[in-house]
Design goal:
The chain has 541 residues and is mainly α. 59% of the residues lie in helices and 5% in strands. The chain is built from 21 helices and six strands. Helix 2 crosses helix 20. The protein is globular.
Length: 541
């Protein structure tokens, strides 16, 4: 089975009149969903960091300017906009303290300089990148399968994929990373096929682009090394040597950034321990989100990434209900994905299934395995697994393409699989339609409940919101009335301003709560536990 040609894929798709129009409609729907209500969902913690970086402010500057002052919500937003006072040197200073590679932020700043700094504009660049992923995905499938049919089905699935649509509306680098992953994969296969220097130079350039977009691009390059070693061997082929030189060149281009960057790696919360059975549930929900989003069936957030609320480490993920249809849909999709991978292994040439399995396996090895051993949650954060998800979508696209085009399959079976494909795509459309109307969604993680927090604060007459982390206030500033005041306080010496109808405390640390209650004798009354909101009462005179 290993050396089997791609004879299972027939060219009948081009002769199905409705299919061409079907793809066009899905593409238009996908573009529509990427831009529709682009600014409706709350601008959450990670996106605030994007705006802070493009504005040219460092967090140290921000803390110095805002601590122990009552500042109205519109004033907080000036630290999230492009201004001529902050130049590219200031942006570089801000980037150096970031944990992410630098490519995305300068692109967003240029975008903001041209079109403005509103939430809609900042997010729209990600939507544009997400659209650019379509031709890249088609090219990858063309190189991998030597046939355009799988590419068209893959594009159809990605166009209305809830996961990809959600991250197309996120002011972060993940749509850009998707494009660089697809380009890197396609250019590698192109370089192997053409066996010339130009191909390997192109591949090296995509390595550099990936490295400057996300550090986890390293897993993609490891997957490529595994693939070449498995297909052509290490000792007997020039291909592996060319791959090493191209990777070395790409990493060398990224070396200047390594020399100046102060921080690397992911957030601390990814290593926090979670209950063991949380890991498979999150994997099932994440995988299914490529085709169907279970959040449409729940008001509670799907993933609670274990925020430390001050006294205990909570991990309150949604509990899937057997009385809910979405639970069965998630399980059926996971089974479909598993069978598609098995089908790919059994029916495709070795060079195809090894490529896809390497892409998936590299992240499983470096993210899932440590989680299973140490009970962390690195592999349960969906945005880190985009290379893996691309492999899964390609496998599913191949499976459906074969099932609906292979002349050796009976017509009633072809009709059955066409119907299942249409149902799967319809689930994606339904998920995107419902999510487009929501103010918050599971990808907001720790900021999921901020819209409700904003509603509670807006009910007060003249409120002030007290917080330690100014980034939290900056996201909340978009959700409250202009007259709402914010105060950032120093944890070690908190001074609560007076003269307000209500004083709210948002996301306090254990140290701050103990300081206020035990040393300054304030009474902290829970207002909205899920949103980590308290009211400060009985202030001393």
């Amino acid at each position: 089975m290993a050396n089997k040609p791609n004879h299972l894929i027939e060219s009948r798709l081009r002769y199905i009149p409705w299919f061409r129009y079907f793809i066009v409609v899905l593409l238009l729907l996908g573009i529509f969903f990427r831009f529709y209500n682009l600014d409706r969902k709350n601008y959450w913690n990670d996106e605030v960091y994007t705006s802070l970086r493009i504005s040219g402010y460092t967090k140290a500057e921000l803390l110095k300017q805002v601590t122990n002052r009552a500042i109205a919500s519109p004033e907080w937003q000036k630290y999230q906009r492009f201004t001529p006072e902050k130049n590219w040197g200031n942006v570089l200073d801000s980037l150096i303290e970031d944990v992410h590679p630098p490519l995305y932020i300068p692109l967003v700043r240029l975008w903001a300089m041209t079109f403005g700094s509103s939430v809609w504009v900042i997010r729209s660049l990600s939507a544009v990148f997400s659209i650019l992923a379509f031709p890249c995905l088609y090219w990858l499938c063309l190189e991998l399968f030597e046939s355009p049919q799988v590419g068209w089905v893959a594009i159809a699935l990605m166009a209305v994929s809830p996961f990809h649509v959600l991250y197309a509306q996120e002011a972060r680098q993940y749509s850009l990373w998707t494009v660089t992953i697809l380009l890197s994969n396609a250019s590698l296969l192109w370089a192997i096929r053409h066996k010339n220097k130009l191909g390997w130079v192109m591949y090296g350039a995509t390595v550099a682009l990936g490295f400057y977009t996300h550090y986890f691009a390293l897993f993609v390059q490891i997957a490529h090394g595994i693939y070449i070693a498995a297909i052509e061997g290490i000792r007997r082929g020039k291909t592996f040597i060319a791959y090493l030189f191209a990777c070395f060149g790409g990493i060398l281009i990224g070396l200047p950034w390594l020399l100046v960057a102060e921080k690397f790696g992911g957030a601390e919360y990814t290593a926090r321990k979670v209950p063991f059975f949380t890991i498979p549930q999150r994997w099932a929900l994440n995988i299914s989100s490529l085709f169907f989003d279970a959040q449409i069936d729940y008001r509670q957030q799907l993933f609670d990434v274990c925020f430390n609320d001050g006294f205990q480490l909570r991990c309150n993920d949604v509990q899937l209900q057997w009385t809910s249809l979405s639970t069965y849909l998630v399980l059926l999709i996971v089974i479909l994905v598993g069978y598609s991978l098995y089908f790919l292994y059994r029916q495709s040439p070795m060079r195809v299934w090894v490529f896809v399995f390497s892409l998936i396996g590299a992240e499983v090895l470096f993210l899932l395995l440590p989680d299973l051993v140490f009970r962390g949650q690195r592999s349960t954060i969906g945005r880190y697994l985009i290379p893996c998800y691309i492999g899964i979508q390609i496998a599913v696209a191949y499976f459906f393409t074969v099932k609906i085009t292979n002349k050796f399959i009976q017509k009633w079976q072809q009709k059955l699989w066409k119907s299942i494909l249409i149902v799967l795509i319809s689930l994606g459309i339904l998920s995107c339609a419902i999510s487009s109307q929501a103010q918050t969604w599971w990808i907001k993680y720790s900021s999921y409940y901020e819209p409700q927090v904003g509603e509670i604060i807006n009910r007060a007459v003249t409120p002030i919101v007290v917080v330690e982390d100014p980034i939290r206030l900056m996201g909340l500033s978009y959700l409250v009335a202009p007259q709402v005041k914010f105060q950032r306080i120093d944890t070690n010496s908190p001074e609560i301003l007076s003269g307000f109808s209500d004083t709210f405390l948002y996301r306090p640390s254990q140290q701050l709560r103990q300081e206020l209650e035990q040393k300054q004798h304030y009474k902290l009354q829970p207002v909205y536990e899920q949103g980590y909101l308290w009211r400060i009462e009985n202030s001393p005179s």
